[in-house]
Write a structure and sequence with these properties.
With 447 residues, the protein is an alpha+beta fold. The protein has helices at residues 11-23, 40-44, 63-72, 89-97, 107-114, 116-125, 140-150, 176-191, 248-265, 296-303, 307-315, 394-407, 417-425, 427-431, 438-442; strands at residues 4-7, 27-33, 47-52, 77-79, 101-102, 154-158, 168-170, 196-200, 206-215, 220-232, 235-241, 268-277, 283-289, 324-325, 331-338, 340-341, 347-348, 351-352, 355-357, 364-368, 375-376, 383-391, 409-411. β10 and β11 (235-241) form a beta hairpin. It folds into three domains: 4-103, Rossmann fold (3-Layer(aba) Sandwich), CATH 3.40.50; 132-200, ATP-grasp fold, A domain (Dna Ligase, domain 1), CATH 3.30.1490.20; 206-442, 2-Layer Sandwich (D-amino Acid Aminotransferase, Chain A, domain 1). Strands 9, 10, 11, 12, 13, 14, 15, 20 and 22 form a nine-stranded mixed β-sheet that branches. It has 15 helices and 23 strands.
């Protein structure tokens, strides 16, 4: 096992990884920008290295500075967290060139999965059902042709990344050029690559993902699915496991498909296969996120498996102790708490947190970097933290989630807490019969 690991990230995920490293007796080294000098992850780490000024391009996305931080502190390995450089093949190559083990997939896998179009080709070769769409990145005219052939609505999606960045719904051919330019600009800002491809929009649809661990040596463990359909701007707000929309037979079909794909790819580390469930009940591959996911605690609570610990063990060359299907128990729900003004179309709301109190009690977990005085920076993601709960069944988990969110106190900035409470209390969520159009159909949600 490693003795010292660099965390190439910030905020909540850096705090999350530090805790597992310390559980294992491993030294944790973090990086930070000057905007994050007083952050919780800097104080918790055994050592912290400043990598530049606030703009991410000059700090957290600066490959040379991040690698130098690992070299100068004599780290054995690098954990990328999510976002930033977590799916950047050039960063993986740079780590390997400097004798730093990258805690994640191989650079070859990262390159293949990082290009969403190439990833779809690879998944088709593994027998994975795909959403109809363009076979390569397209320009505005090709996108219009593809849209006309597929039939509207269609989605424009970034070739080089996920997380909803660079994704736009196009309702008609007349909208396409303006929407294309905006999506391409957002994709370029987020991933340094503005290329887009086109997919048929499935309406209504559910967004369901399958968590997997693989050791690259023939061992694959699937850990069930997470329901992620409640979203704003294609970014998730509430997740749960198991999905109320997935029957046991469908679940096994999806997990079997994921296992086959991992074996064919020679996949290593944690990964998440994202699917859309169409109105006819079929499932279609969207993308493979070759990293830890923001919503991974949902899976940890129903399986009892620390995914970061397993990532570390696999990166150190160990085989998975368990393969096949992970055992699961009960029901888990996660609500993301973002510093956003819901009344202003979820506009980011940076500022200083005046009061913060996390919920406590049985079956409640809060992953956060926030505390009184924490400044939510305008330079980075708006995530303040995540409230995750577990209970024996879904109704009990919903009730516990509402109780925990009611206990949560965050003042000084607007957040999505009240929206989450309103959603969880609503009949539509309680029924389990919802889709990715949930917020559009239910807004305004009573609180």
């Amino acid at each position: 096992m490693f003795s010292r690991v660099l965390i190439a990230n910030r905020g909540e995920v850096a705090v999350r990884v530090i805790r597992t490293l310390h559980d294992l007796g491993i030294e944790a080294v973090t990086i930070y920008s000057t905007a994050d000098a007083e952050s919780m992850h800097v104080r918790m780490a055994d050592r912290a290295i400043c990598v530049g000024p606030p703009p991410a391009a000059l700090s957290y996305l600066n490959i040379a500075s991040v690698v130098a931080a690992g070299e100068t502190t004599r780290c054995d390995a690098v954990h990328p967290g999510w976002g930033f450089l977590s799916e950047n093949a050039a960063f993986v190559h740079a780590c390997e060139d400097n004798d730093l083990v990258f805690i994640g997939p191989s650079p070859e896998t990262m390159e293949q999965m990082g290009d969403k179009v190439e990833a779809k080709v690879a998944m088709a070769g593994a027998g994975m059902p795909l959403i109809p769409g363009s076979e390569h990145a397209v320009g505005p005219e090709e996108a219009r042709t593809a849209g006309d052939e597929l039939g509207y609505p269609v989605l424009l999606k970034a070739s080089a990344g996920g997380g909803g960045r660079g994704m736009r719904l196009v309702e008609s051919s007349e909208q396409l050029e303006d929407v294309f330019q905006g999506a391409s600009a957002e994709a370029h800002a987020a991933f340094g690559d503005g290329s887009l491809y086109v997919e048929k929009a499935l309406v209504p649809a559910r967004h369901v993902e399958v968590q997997v661990l693989a050791d690259g040596q023939g061992g694959v463990l699937t850990l069930g699915e997470r329901e992620c359909s409640i979203q704003r701007r294609h970014q998730k707000l509430i997740e749960e496991s198991p999905s109320p929309g997935v029957a046991p037979a469908l679940r096994e079909q999806m997990e079997s498909a994921v296992e086959r794909a991992c074996l064919q790819l020679g996949y290593r580390s944690a990964g998440t296969f994202e699917f859309l469930l169409g109105p006819e009940g079929g499932f279609y591959f969207m993308e493979l996120n070759a990293r830890l996911q923001v919503e991974h605690p949902v899976t940890e609570l129903v399986t009892g498996i620390d995914l970061v610990r397993e990532q570390l063990k696999v990166a150190a060359g160990e085989r998975l102790e368990r393969t096949g299907r992970a055992e699961r128990r009960g029901h888990a729900i996660e609500a993301r708490i973002n510093a956003e003004d819901v009344a202003r179309d979820f506009a980011p709301a940076p500022g200083r947190i005046e009061r913060f109190r996390a919920p406590l009690g049985p079956g409640v977990r809060m992953d956060t970097h926030a505390e009184p005085g924490t400044v939510v920076s305008p330079y980075y993601d708006s995530l303040v933290g995540k409230v995750i709960v577990w209970d024996e069944d879904r109704p009990a988990a919903i009730a516990r989630a509402v109780r925990a969110l009611t206990e949560l106190e965050v003042s000084g900035i607007p957040t999505t807490r009240e929206l989450a409470i309103g959603i969880l209390r609503g009949e539509a969520f309680g029924s389990g019969r919802y889709s990715t159009s949930f917020l559009d159909e239910m807004a305004p949600v009573p609180v």
